[in-house]
Amino acid sequence: KRQVSTQSTGDNKLVFSSENQVQVRDVRNSTNPLFKLEGHSDLVTCCGFDKNLVVSGSLDKTLRLWDIKSGIALHTISVNDHSPRCLQLDATRIVTGSYDAQIRVFDFGVKSSRLISTKKNKKKNECSLS
Fold first, then answer.
1. Which of 1, 4, 73 is CA-nearest to residue 38?
2. pLDDT for 59-70, tens place per residue?
3. What's the CA angle centered on 65, arms 61 and 68, to 5 degrees?
4. Cβ neighbours around 22 below 10 Å, total
5. How far is the C-alpha of 65 from the C-alpha of 92, rounded, in Å?
6. What is the average per-residue pLDDT within 26-38?
7. C-alpha angle with apex 32: 42 to 8, nearest 5 degrees?
8. Which residues pair with 96 in a beta bridge?
9. Which of 9-23, 35-49, 62-76 has the lowest average pLDDT?
10. How many CB atoms lie within 10 A of CB 41?
11. 93 or 10, which is more confident?
12. Can you tell me the distance from the alpha carbon of 70 to that of 60, in angstroms, rounded to the nearest whole number?
């Protein structure tokens, strides 16, 4: 299995992505996942989260939004022209870096989303959004 990332949410949850799924685990018992967030049809390349939401990006050219407390899939954003390589999110936006060296900003809600900006990343082989 290919592990993409392991991150702590600060409230005893661990977000772990591998293969084509993301897992949310309790850090006190990280052996068994609380939730397996399944739905991507290809390798998960990145994930991010806040206290309510997990966002995963995949080579299937989608971003998927999940409720971190229940594991329920909330929304899928089709990013037809690129596969996300890295991402960051805040309360209203998801910023992605992709293999085509583009940085994209998505405005999102639970039921809808839209691309609001695209910018060329000058450091083509890096995936840094800061």
1. 73
2. 999 999 999 889
3. 140
4. 28
5. 12
6. 81
7. 75
8. 87, 104
9. 9-23
10. 10
11. 93
12. 24
Q: Using CA atoms, how far apart are residues 42 and 33, in angstroms rounded to an integer?
A: 20
- 102, 61 in Cβ contact below 8 A? no
Burial group, residue 104, by CB count within 10 angstroms (0-12, 13-18, 19+): buried
Q: Which H or E run includes 38?
A: strand 29-38
Q: How far is CA 100 from the centre of its chain?
A: 18
**102-108: strand order across its sheet:** 84-89, 93-98, 102-108, 113-120
Q: Say what the pTM is.
A: 0.79
Distance CA 105, CA 63 (A): 12
Separation CA 54–CA 74 (nearest Å): 10
